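thought: user wants a sequence for this fold. calling inverse folding tool.
action: design(structure=
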């Protein structure tokens, strides 16, 4: 599980962070300041893991949409041979391609809705032909002409109603959640086809329905689906092992075994080995991890993160982890759902060197893994806060956000003064004592997602948020030295105000339609709308034609959070699908389009972005006369297009034939 970005506190940048704007997206440079000071052994380790991350990038593109890679190849061929493409068409293709790169395909990462080219099909066709005439390698299938290619791909580039939604957890009446979703996790499969079907590889397979009605699992593994890319990942992981600590080497060996077999038993062994590595300074996440892309919340999207510990930022999150049992014993839910003997909770702040697949260029700010409930309850979990990502968000965001949506100057001033601390503390608790807490009933066999289906991710994210919001006012945080006693109440008010504001401001991201698809956004709206409807904590006010969500009673806010949290934990623990569906769809899915239009107008007037894609640091090996790597240099490209083209060139030959 992961935490998505919220609105960060503002700061004046001392070096370039915000590189450019494309429509409502910001492009921001990510820095890894501590890398240069790492020992050479750790730098070389990170280099090999970095290569493994790049090697698997196209797996996620393919999972996200079956046509993404062909579309990307065509776009990149044009931009790499654009000398004779007319200027307006080239500018439009550049705009669209940058959004395509940021979102890993033609669907908005937050709204799940398709975006299209704004030029005419004729202008695009002329650009393709001009690029081909200048030597571009156009991705033609066997026997296919450029006209055939354009005819085949035109709906993907230009028709917003053709396969309009990448993941549809609340489809139109009568529609199936799998066939209404354009992602490539299923081929011809409907929910009814899976009645009685037992998946041997639930996390790392694609399901295809054969002509005779059989369901086949296409397994992501060496020799299986995307076998060439996975072989390359394995080769880089093997190269990393000699530089790893013994616990990390054991985890990497287990990961390789899983990639080779694709079996659930090997995935479990890897999860256990990974979570038991508590002391290594360098770490990687690599594999099929989060299930947000799947309408069923079963299939894992491929991702990779490579990082090292930021020791200056780690102290606070470790204090929370060390007291996990104290928090567990005081959870406001039924005692039978509290863990006993909490152990194995590891928490660190990290600096990211690269994120790929489902975690980049759009990145989380916090992560808690593994997701397997049985392993979490027996072996514990790892929680991380992405310190340099949080910093980059803060340094690239201007203060107008808070001023525009705060009811009073005092509220805006609190956000300026305390917003960063309050947000970081809430994110840390979300990951460590939120996702890491609670038990489920034995009949679920450690898999509540099987019972909660498409509602699972929104329920789990809301549960983690509610835990953090519930404990934020607790004086235990003062005792632990996480907040100053004299400012504690102000910090609580700041975070509660921010949380209420965020449910309103996030509507800027959904510029079409009338419902929310992304699970973190559903979670936030559900909590705030529930509090508005069921408590006196938040007022909805209008002034000068502008709407505000005003947090007026922090005591009522916390009491409401506690009541809602108790019910959400019960829903998860019992696998109560009907209650989950009613709660999420009543409060978390639908919104008033007139309110959304108002928010969009206010945001656009201030020219504020809705979401952010990151340019990653670049690593370059330093070799001796014999070709051995003796050091690794880090640099900052400051150029999204250059980095994306470089990554694509590195992985194009690793695709399935």
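)
observation: tool returned 657 residues.
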């Amino acid at each position: 599980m992961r935490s998505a970005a919220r609105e960060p506190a503002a700061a004046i940048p001392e070096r370039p962070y915000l590189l450019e704007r494309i429509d409502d997206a910001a492009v921001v440079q990510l820095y890894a300041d501590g890398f240069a000071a790492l020992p050479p052994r750790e730098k070389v380790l990170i280099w090999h893991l970095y290569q493994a991350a790049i090697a698997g990038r196209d797996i996620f593109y393919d999972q996200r949409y079956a046509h993404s890679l062909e579309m990307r190849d065509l776009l990149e061929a044009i931009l790499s041979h654009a000398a004779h493409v007319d200027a307006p068409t080239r500018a439009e293709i550049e705009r669209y391609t940058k959004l395509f790169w940021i979102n890993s395909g033609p669907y908005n990462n937050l709204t799940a809705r398709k975006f299209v080219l704004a030029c005419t099909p004729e202008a695009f066709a002329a650009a393709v032909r001009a690029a081909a005439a200048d030597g571009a390698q156009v991705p033609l299938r066997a026997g296919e002409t450029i006209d055939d290619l354009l005819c085949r791909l035109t709906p993907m580039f230009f028709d917003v109603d053709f396969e309009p939604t990448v993941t549809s957890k609340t489809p139109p009446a009568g529609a199936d959640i799998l066939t209404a979703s354009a992602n490539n996790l299923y081929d011809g499969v409907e929910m009814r086809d899976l009645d009685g079907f037992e998946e041997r590889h639930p996390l790392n397979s694609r399901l295809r329905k054969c002509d005779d009605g059989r369901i086949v699992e296409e397994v992501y593994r060496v020799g299986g689906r995307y076998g060439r890319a996975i072989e390359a990942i394995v080769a880089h992981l093997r190269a990393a092992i000699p530089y790893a600590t013994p616990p990390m080497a054991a985890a990497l060996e287990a990961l390789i075994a899983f990639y080779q077999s694709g079996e659930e038993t090997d995935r479990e062994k890897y999860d256990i080995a990974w979570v038991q590595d508590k002391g290594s300074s360098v770490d990687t996440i690599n594999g099929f991890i989060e299930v947000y892309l799947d309408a069923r919340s079963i299939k894992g999207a491929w991702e990779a993160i490579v990082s090292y510990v930021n020791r200056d930022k780690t102290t606070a999150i470790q204090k929370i982890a060390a007291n996990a049992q104290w928090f567990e014993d005081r959870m406001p839910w039924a005692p039978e759902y509290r863990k006993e003997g909490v152990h194995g909770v590891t928490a660190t702040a990290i600096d990211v060197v690269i994120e790929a697949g489902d975690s980049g260029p759009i990145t989380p700010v916090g992560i808690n893994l593994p997701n397997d409930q049985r392993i979490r309850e027996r072996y514990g979990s790892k929680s991380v806060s992405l310190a340099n990502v949080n910093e980059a968000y803060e340094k690239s965001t201007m203060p107008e956000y808070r001023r525009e949506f705060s009811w009073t100057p005092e509220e805006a001033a609190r956000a300026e003064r305390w917003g960063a601390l309050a947000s970081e503390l809430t994110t840390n608790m979300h990951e460590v004592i939120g996702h890491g807490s609670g038990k489920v009933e034995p009949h679920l066999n450690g898999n509540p997602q099987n019972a909660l289906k498409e509602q699972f991710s929104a329920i789990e994210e809301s549960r983690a948020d509610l835990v953090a919001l519930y404990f934020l006012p607790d004086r235990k945080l003062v005792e632990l030295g996480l907040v100053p006693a004299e400012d504690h109440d102000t910090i609580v008010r700041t975070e509660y105000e921010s949380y209420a504001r965020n449910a309103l401001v996030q509507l800027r991201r959904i510029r079409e339609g009338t419902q929310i698809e992304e699970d973190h956004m559903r979670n936030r709206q559900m909590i705030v709308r529930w509090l508005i409807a069921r408590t006196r904590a938040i007022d909805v006010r209008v002034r000068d034609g502008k709407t505000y969500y005003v947090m007026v009673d922090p005591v009522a806010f916390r009491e409401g959070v506690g009541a809602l949290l108790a019910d959400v934990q019960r829903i998860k623990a019992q696998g109560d699908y009907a209650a989950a569906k009613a709660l999420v769809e009543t409060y978390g899915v639908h919104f008033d389009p007139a309110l959304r239009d108002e928010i969009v107008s206010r945001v656009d007037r201030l020219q504020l972005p809705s979401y952010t894609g990151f340019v990653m640091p670049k690593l370059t090996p330093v070799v001796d006369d014999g070709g051995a790597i003796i050091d690794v240099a880090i640099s900052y490209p400051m150029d999204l297009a250059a980095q994306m083209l470089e990554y694509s060139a590195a992985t194009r030959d690793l695709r399935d034939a």
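thought: summarizing for user.
answer: Here is the designed sequence. The first helix runs from residue 40 to 55.
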